[in-house]
Each structure stands twice: as C-alpha cells, then as structure tokens.
Amino acid sequence: MIPRTMNQGLFPVRVDTLKSVDLEAEFSGTIDISQLGRLQDFLQDNSGQTQVEIQFGRDEQGTSLLRGQCQAQVRMTCQRCMNPVEVDLSTDFELGIVFSDEQAKHLPKQYEPVIAERDDLELLPVIEDELILSLPMYAYHTQCDENELVAKAEEVVPVPVETEAPNNPFSVLEQLKK
Ligand SMILES: [Zn+2]
To answer: What is the pTM of this model?
Structure first.
C-alpha cells in the first residue's frame, strides 16, 4: 500500500481505531501548541510545537493499546516574577483503548483508558491530556533578573548522576521516581 502522504511532519488528527491496532500503525510528527486549547490555559502563550510519536498494538491479553511519547517546550508564567519561563515537557504513556465506559471498568489496572469509536479516534485530545498531566505544578526561573527565559530545567526533569552511587543501581531508579 502506498502511503497517501509522504509528509512525515504531518501528524494525523484522527485515525481508524481498529485498523490502526490491527496494523500496529505508527505515527510521528509535530502538533502546534496553538491547536491545543486546553493546554494553553496553563501557558503564557501558544507558541511552539510538540513532537509526538505514537504506536498502536495489543498486549499478550489482547488489550488494544496506544503507546507514545511527546516532547514540547512551552512558556509558562514564572511564579516569582510573573514573566514567561520556558519549560521542557516530556512524557511517555501507555493507554488501553476501549469502546465503552463498561469496557473501561474492566481494563487491566496498569492502563489508563482512552475511549474511542471503533472506526474513529481523535488523537489531539489524547496528546493534549498527556501534556497537561506532564506540566510541573509551578514554574520558576533559575535567576529571575539574569535570564528571563531560562527555566531551572533540573527541577523540572531530574537527571540522575551516575557517578554519585556507582554501586547501587537502584538509587538511579529512586531518583527517576521522584
Ligand atoms: Zn522569574
């Protein structure tokens, strides 16, 4: 089958749910933040884009899944000086696709449900929900006066330092959990 478009940058707004699951379809591309109205309510402005990769499939029990990752740089309001501050968002998700509230109740506990039509799943609200969940509670500049746009990135995304605990692999996991 020849893809209808070769434009890798174009992320689909909606897909045929069951067909995507059966084909284990993968999509990647960018979405303008200006298309995500609910996310904008938390932001200083609607500039920027999010990079998204998703993959459909099933687990061993036959549960239909939507896995994905998104990355975005957004502008929030610094809670010290009230000027814009750039914040990196990054999120991985694994959702169980269901077709009714009843099915959602019976979904294995490890998956958050996404309710879809069999032939129609709107992707942007799903991506938007995941980005909203990944927002930090508060955003601050490292130094409000010196550089208005640089966020204290290490507070937003903790980066484990391997050399601090060379004998304990679990300490890295502990840091990632925070
Ligand atoms: Zn500030």
So the answer is: 0.75
